[in-house]
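Duplicate of #3305? Posting structure anyway:
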């Protein structure tokens, strides 16, 4: 597990392009047959990915000082690859493309698998410290509710922006209060419509939560210019397909792509109010 420390906005003002990338950018997440994890001291989020060819168990590793990964943690997972399954304490959950899972604290044995080794699942992971156990559930954007399965509510599929502003997008909220109970983790996915390239613009910060973005569904020659930093001290990081970026609570988090794309957002912190954010006026960005 790679470890990264927290950073001060005063220090970030002096970072080079390479230093920005070393501190905030997460590359090479999806490696066939492996689980990759990055532990950030910023709200102690763990960001990672599992790309199983053969079944792979999720272990705590020495860094967590825990008997098992979810001993004191909760876990959110979204599959952006082929069909697969996640086995949690003996129960098998079939997780398809853009389907998700919330796995509660105390879940001991977690195993990732792909239905076909030639078309492996790509399980993207966000994990946060937890103080109580919430139910483990499979989350689907569409379908019929059943035991252990939550269907995303219509009110949690939000269409925003416009083509004229180049930010026409649909937000699908997977893990948040009122739909999937968690201690602090929230996760969802935003898809930009063809012709739109901006996300989260006008932008914002939120002092009570940090955030991680994973950009995907981009061809090899495409990129996203991800903007971060304090509103009057912005910086950029060039990001390619299936790369993630850590966003501290003091930083804006917005991107503009060379074409439309999709991104997964995950938030952890003391506040789960999705709309608790401090908006930044377009004229105030520098």
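Output from current build:
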């Amino acid at each position: 597990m790679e470890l990264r420390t927290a950073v001060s906005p005063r220090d970030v003002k002096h970072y080079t392009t390479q230093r920005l990338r070393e501190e905030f950018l997460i590359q090479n997440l999806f490696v066939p047959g492996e689980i990759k994890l990055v532990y950030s001291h910023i709200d102690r989020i763990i960001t990672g990915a599992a790309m199983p060819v053969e079944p792979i168990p999720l272990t705590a590793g020495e860094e967590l000082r825990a008997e098992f990964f979810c001993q004191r943690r909760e876990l959110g997972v979204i599959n952006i690859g082929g069909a697969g399954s996640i086995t949690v304490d003996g129960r098998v959950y079939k997780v398809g493309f853009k389907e998700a899972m919330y796995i509660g604290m105390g879940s001991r044995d977690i195993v990732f698998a792909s239905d076909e080794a030639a078309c492996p699942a790509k399980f993207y992971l966000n994990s946060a410290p937890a103080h109580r156990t919430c139910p483990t559930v499979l989350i689907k954007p569409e379908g019929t509710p059943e035991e252990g399965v939550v269907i995303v509510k219509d009110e949690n599929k939000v269409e925003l922006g416009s083509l004229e502003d180049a930010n026409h997008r649909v937000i699908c909220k997977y893990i948040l209060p009122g739909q999937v109970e968690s201690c602090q983790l929230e996760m969802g996915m935003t898809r930009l419509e063809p012709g739109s390239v901006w996300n989260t613009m006008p932008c914002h910060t939120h002092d009570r939560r940090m955030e991680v973005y994973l950009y995907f569904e981009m061809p090899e020659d495409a990129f996203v210019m991800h903007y971060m930093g304090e509103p009057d001290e912005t910086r950029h990081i060039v990001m390619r397909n299936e790369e993630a970026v850590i966003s501290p609570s003091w930083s804006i988090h917005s991107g503009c792509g060379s074409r439309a794309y999709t991104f997964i957002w995950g938030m952890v912190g003391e506040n789960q109010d999705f709309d608790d954010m401090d908006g930044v006026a377009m004229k105030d960005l520098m």
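Confirmed duplicate; merging threads. The mean pLDDT is 95. The chain is about 5% helix and 45% strand.
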